[in-house]
Amino acid sequence: MGGLFDFIRILINISLLWVGFFFLVKLLILIFPRLLEYINRYQIIISLFQISIRTTKLNGPIQRLSIKFQRLWQYWFNVGMVVSLLTLPISIGLFVYNLGILVVKPQNIEPIINPIVPGVNVQGQDSWYLFISLLISMFYHELGHALCIYSFNSRINDIGFFMTFIIPGAHVDIHRDVLYRLDLWDRLKVFCAGVWHNLALCIMALLLMNANFIILSPLYHFSSDKLYITHISDHSILQKSFNIGDQIVSINQCTPTNIQQYIECIESEIKNPKSYCLSESNIQCLNDQIINDSPHMRQCFDYNELLKYQQCTSSQNGTSSNGQCASGSRCIQFAKFNYHLFIINATEQNPSKYGTELIPFVGTAQELWDSFTLNNYKARLTWMSHWDIPRHLQSFYQYLIPISLGLAVFNVVSIYALDGEYILETLLYIFASKQGGKQSQFTPKITRIQKIILNTTLVLLLLNILISYYQLFAK
Ligand SMILES: [Zn+2]
C-alpha cells in the first residue's frame, strides 16, 4: 500500500499549498485593496482549491478564424460528427472490455485504461508533461466547440480557464438558447466537436512524433543505427566515465542500434547471467556484505581489475570449482547477489579526443538503466547537447496522445454533465423527431431510455475507476 501513502502525502502537500496561497491572496487584498479591482476586472475567481479566469478576448479571433474558412470548418465538423459517433460504440466496448480484464485478471493482458496518479505512476518531470498535455488537450477540445458554433453563425459567451486542485481545464460558455435554436444535426456537431478535436489532436501528435527526426533535423543529426548518451544521472557511478554525446557501441558484445535493442541487451544479460573467476578475498567480502545485508557490495570489486575478470561457466546454484579458474579463485555467478557485470564499449564524440574505450559497470540492471538515457539523436551544436530536446518532445507526445484520446473516450460516452450526455440527448431528439414526435420534448418512454443509458454508463464507469484505483494502490 506504499503507493497510497505517497499519494495521500502529495494530496496533503498540495492542500497545504492551496491553503497558503488562498490566505496569501486574502492578506494581499487586505493590504492592497486595489488588487481586488484587478481581480474583479479580469473576472478572476479565487476560492480554496480553485482558481479560474473568464475572458471574452478570444471570442473575436475565434470568430474571425471560423468565418474566414467557414465552408472548410463545416466539412471538418461533418467529418468530426461521423468519427465521434463511430467512436461512441468503440468507447463503450473499451470500458466493458477493460472491466472484464480488471475482474478476470487474465495472465499477460494488462488493462487498457490506467488511472493517472501523481506521485505514484507519474513522478518528477513527468508531472509537467502531464499538466501541459492536459492543458493543451482541454483547450483544443473547447476550441472545437467554439469554432463549430461560430461556423453556424452563432456565438459563445466567453472562454474560461481554471485549475481545480492540480487539474487544469478550460470550458466555453454557450448560452442554452443559442444552442437550442440550432438545427438538431448542427447541435450534434457542436457537441461532438470537442471529442473530434481530441481525436484529431491525437492523430496530429502521432504524425509529429513519427516525423520528429525531420522536424528536429536543423538542430539534431539523426542516425538510425547509432545510440548516443543524451542525459547522465547525477546519482550514477558512471557520471564521470561518460560525456553527453558519447556513442554506445556495444554492451557485453551486444550491439544496440535503438532503445528497444538496448533494453534487449540488458535483458539478455539478466536471462543468461555470466560467471567470473573471483578471488577468495573477493568472495569473502561479498559473503560478509550479504550476511550484513549491506548495500556496499560494489566495494568488494576492484574497479581496475573488472575488465580483466575471467569468464567461466558455473552451475545452477551459482558456484562451481571445476578447475576453470586459477588457484585461489572460484567461479561465481554475479546474479547470485543480483549484480551483473556490464562492459560498455563507448566512443567519445569530442573531436579532440575521439576514441573508443571499454568501461566496466558492476551493479544491478536497474542501476545501469537509471544511469543514463540514450537515443538516436546527436546535437549538431555541442552547447545544445545538454538540452535533450528529442527526449522531452518524445516524452511530451507520450503523454499528449493517451490524454487527448482519454478525453475523447470519456467525453463521447453518456456520462452525466459531460459532452456525452448532450450527444445522447440530441441523438434521442433526432430519433424522436423521426418517430414524428415534437423536437422540444421527449415521450416518457424516451426519457426512460435516456435514464437507463446514463445510469448504466455511470455504473460501468464507476466500476472501472474504483477497481483500477484499488488494484493500483493494492500493488
Ligand atoms: Zn466538450
Automatic annotation (TrEMBL):
Q: Give the GO molecular function terms.
A: metalloendopeptidase activity
- Give the record's membrane topology: Multi-pass membrane protein
Q: Where are the transmembrane segments?
A: 7-32, 75-97, 128-152, 159-175, 195-216, 399-418, 452-472
Pfam families from the xrefs?
Peptidase_M50
Q: Which GO terms describe its biological process?
A: membrane protein intracellular domain proteolysis; regulation of response to endoplasmic reticulum stress
One GO cellular component term of this record is: endomembrane system
Name this protein carries in UniProt: Endopeptidase S2P
Lineage at the top is: Eukaryota, Amoebozoa, Evosea, Eumycetozoa, Dictyostelia
